[in-house]
Specification:
Length: 473
């Protein structure tokens, strides 16, 4: 077992108080991290504030170089990092590798983003120009499902925009993030990136801290609402990436054999613990029987187990609380007599937070397993008859994160996409985010956006400078 330290003001430090981190596959402690409170947060924020005075004056090229250094450090140490990530998060090695290389790729790509000045008026009377200025010190708060990807998608745009950051990983998955902190310690100027760990109680201290100017948060909608409230005291800027209950719509012309496997992974990647996973799959009645059987048959070939073992396709649920929540949803489905195509019948007792791959056969729209975000390896398949009906059902959610349409007729797919009330819609693919396109939720799935120029702007204020050309002074 290793002790991991925090990064504050360019130094790896601890306070002698520790939080233990479990491997969800074995329930054994894999590492310890500092348990921080107000004192450590104050030091980190003060360091970020000091660093901001210089960092905000750097050029875009200087910042780009630093961010590319972060990307390189992650890539060069990918082998060590993905194994560590599996040991704390549970995801299979191949998916952990994707996350680590994905984070390095995101950092490299986003390092190239720039916010150029915009000329609003340029004539004989006036020259008016909008420039973007960094908001200041950012508080970043991330969840446990993609710890490194989420950390990078907060740290990188903050730095690129000229801000400095204090980042808090989830107490369930802080190890890989602190290892990355150690790797980038000498890559980033002291104080520009600070990473501190603690219980959930550290979150509100960040949200309400008087010397933090902006919060960028990824996590549940319930916590997002608390953050909005906490940040309102001094009107901090906020970006919230929250929950989703994404619908996939499969039209009757889809090739059953070709889409079955893709639909499976759109739901079960990372054991379903993905905000943009397909959480409701609507299949046209003409192909429902064939496609639901093909998905269930494929599911039987996928191994649930320890992510560090070769051949594992679906790992454990990341933590006990979420494990119990998912089991409760399955129990509710059983109590209501819904039909299971797979799963739901295995005794989940034993070591590790394993849930069998569970697929439900056409449960009603108001079933908890349909209406709630499952965030686990549990997927309801539902039958629909008409496009109008399925659009209405897909939109009948407080969430609005993403969705997908599967059809050979891509024009039809786009026509349906334009009627879905979500921030992203894919036609014939899933979970593809571009570093250059805004990613954000409609309705209760979020506030603002990450990625691309829109995401970068959220770390800045617009400032308009106007010069009166014919002024009599
Ligand atoms: P969570 O909201 O419980 O925790 C997220 C983070 O917030 C953790 O670091 C936690 O310590 C911290 N936190 C907890 N209470 C806080 C408070 N009162 N104030 C400030 N911070 C607080 O979420 P989770 O269980 O870690 O993650 C799962 C949820 O995240 C799911 O709902 C999922 O859909 C969502 N998610 C969304 C996205 C997205 O981009 N939209 C991505 C991944 C996960």
């Amino acid at each position: 077992m290793t002790d991991y330290k925090n990064l504050i003001d360019g130094k790896m430090v601890d306070n002698g108080q520790w939080l233990e981190v479990l491997n969800p596959a074995t329930e054994q402690v894999v590492g310890r991290v500092p348990s921080c409170g107000k004192e450590e947060l104050d030091s980190a924020v003060a360091a970020a504030r000091r660093a901001f005075t210089q960092w905000k004056k750097t050029t875009a090229e200087e910042r780009q170089k630093v961010v590319q250094g972060i990307a390189a450090a992650i890539k060069e140490n990918a082998d060590e990092l993905y194994r560590l990530l599996t040991s704390e998060q549970g995801k299979p090695h191949a998916q952990a590798q994707q996350e680590i290389y994905g984070a390095a790729g995101l950092a490299a790509a986003q390092s190239t983003l720039t916010l150029d000045d915009v000329i609003n008026q340029d004539d004989d009377t006036r020259l008016s120009r909008t420039r973007r200025v960094p908001v200041g010190v950012v508080g970043g708060i991330v969840p446990w499902n993609f710890p490194i990807m989420m950390a990078i998608q907060k740290i990188v745009p903050a730095l690129v925009a000229g801000c400095t950051i204090v980042l808090k990983p989830s107490p369930f998955t802080p190890l890989t993030t602190l290892r990355v902190a150690e790797l980038i310690k000498d890559v980033v100027p002291a104080g520009t990136v600070n990473i501190i760990t603690g219980e959930d109680t550290l979150g509100p201290l960040i949200t309400e801290h008087p010397d933090i100017d902006k919060i960028t948060f990824t996590g549940s909608t319930a916590t997002g609402k608390k953050i909005m409230e906490g940040a309102s005291g001094d009107l901090k800027r906020i970006t919230l990436e929250l929950g989703g209950n994404d619908a996939s719509i499969v039209l009757p012309d889809a090739d059953v054999q070709k889409v079955a496997e893709q639909l499976f992974w759109s739901s079960f990647s990372n054991a379903g613990q993905v905000c943009i996973a397909a959480k409701r799959i609507y299949i046209h009645e003409d192909i429902y029987d064939d496609l639901s059987k093909a998905i269930a048959d494929y599911a039987k070939t996928v191994v649930v187990g320890d992510g560090s073992q070769q051949g594992t396709g679906v790992g454990p649920i990341q933590n006990k609380k979420q494990y119990e929540r998912v089991l409760d949803l399955i129990q509710d489905a059983k109590d209501n007599g819904y039909k299971f195509l797979t799963g739901g019948d295995k005794d989940p007792s034993g070591t590790g937070y394993y849930v069998p791959i569970t697929i439900l056969d056409n449960p009603p729209e108001d079933a908890r397993i349909v209406a709630e975000e499952q965030f686990g390896p549990v997927m309801p398949l539902m039958k629909f008859a008409s496009v109008d009906e399925v659009i209405e059902r897909a939109n009948n959610s407080e969430y609005g994160l993403a969705g997908a349409v599967w059809t050979k007729d891509t024009d039809k797919g786009v026509e349906i996409a334009e009627q879905l009330e979500t921030g992203t819609v894919w036609i014939n693919e899933f979970m593809q985010l571009s570093p250059f396109a805004p990613f954000g939720g409609h309705k209760q799935s979020g506030f603002g956006a990450e990625y691309g120029i829109d995401g970068l702007k959220e770390f800045t204020y617009p400032q308009v400078i106007t010069v009166k050309c014919d002024a009599a002074v």
